[in-house]
Amino acid sequence: MPSQGAIIAVLAAAGLCSSFMFTLMVPIQSKLPELLDASREDTAWVVTSTLLAAAVITPISGRLGDMYGKRRIVLVLTAVMVVGSVIAALSPGIIGIIVGRTLQGAIVGVVPLGISIMRDVLHEDRVDSAIAFMSATLGVGGALGLPISALVTERSDWHVLFWMAAALGVVVFALVLWIVPVSVLRTAGRFDYVGAVGLALGLIGILLAISRGGDWGWGSPAVLACGLGGLAVLLVWGWYELRIDAPLLDLRVAARPAVLLTNIASVAMGFSLFASNVVYPQLLELPAATGVGFGLSLLVASLIVMPSGLVMMVLSPVAGRIATRTGPKLLLLLGAVSLIAAYGFTLLFSSEVWHILVANILIGAGIGFGYASMPMLIMRSVPQSETGASNGLNALFRSLGTSTAAAVVGAVLAASAVDVGGVAVPSSAGFTLSLVLGLAAAGLALVVGLFIPTRAAGERHPSLPQ
């Protein structure tokens, strides 16, 4: 039997691999139309496709993990990511890149599955700290991946990024197969294929409306059809799920106050996190002549942002100890307060680079505590047979928050753009409004968090070593 430390390390590596997929394209996103000889609207699908795939696959893979074995599904998702990376690496045109990026999005499902594996196979004294460590990889992978991606794209062919992703996936696959044990829990019943298709169609419609609304026009027929159509499909899907014996997601469990309020807080915290990911890099990289930027290169800017992820990693054992002693609700509240402090500080002080550095450190503390708390709150409130699906649903709500932030903050900055030397750049007022929106989202997470019940589920963990 591998040591519990080794199991935690391998699952954390899988989490790092997952978060790296979302920073992979950041250094070259603005150059994709030139690199792929395609329009900007078409190249936007290189990012949108990964987002859609991740949102759809995460809750579905959670249910598959509960039914057929979580480690098995982690291996499948990792293998799909490797295949997607190879396809993208070998593709000179946009179609192959979009297909590859879509398959890469599958890896996002390993984080909620990894957290559920930890509950199944670790001693209960180590579960909270392990979950905090796993949650920290969501920020660390991005923080480390951004400067690495920037360095590679500056020194080599950009397709090397996909070969790096494939190699990382192969290593993770081998380590999971070697180190991570098979958990003994299984959920009986048949897989709900109708529910999976309905959830996928509904989510794709809503996320398309959110992510492409700025390009297509928020009142355009395409956006309204996608958004309203997706919402209608999800309403019918919910009605169906409540009437079958083995649903894809048990909505009665999802409606428990602790689960429901945690998921609502997840949307708000996801919004607050991604608003900072949009605002701070632009502040650092815009030319100083614009009056709002510092004119830093992508590599230097990424090094200023990177400490947020490192703070998440450093604070993960602290988060585990706090959760063990006082419960995870306090972690969520501390995270929201730290995010409020970050945005408040930036609204007051943003004239020096070190101001942005301090704000990013506070963002790292906020997300480190907040993201660590969410799976702990969920798993204290659901049956052990539902951990994979419930964690997948929580990850989906976080994704809805980040997707909404990308669309809303992007629209705010675009609407506020002013002409500087013949180039449209976001204005100071646009950045201020974006920071206020991030602050408001963090405040909402704090208020919702205050109402989350603290009573533990009181359930024994039959798969935990005694």
From TrEMBL:
Q: Which UniProt keywords apply?
A: Membrane, Transmembrane, Transmembrane helix, Transport
Transmembrane as a keyword of this entry, yes or no, is: yes
Q: What is its main location?
A: membrane
TM ranges: 43-61, 73-95, 101-118, 130-152, 158-179, 191-210, 216-237, 258-280, 292-318, 330-348, 354-374, 395-418, 430-452
Concerning Gene3D superfamilies, the annotation shows: MFS general substrate transporter like domains
Major facilitator superfamily (MFS) profile domain: residues covered: 7-457
**Topological type in the membrane:** Multi-pass membrane protein
Q: Which PROSITE patterns match?
A: MFS
State its location(s): Cell membrane
Q: What is this protein called?
A: MFS transporter
**Which organism does this sequence originate in?**
Microbacterium lacus
The taxonomic lineage of its organism, from the top, reads:
Bacteria, Bacillati, Actinomycetota, Actinomycetes, Micrococcales
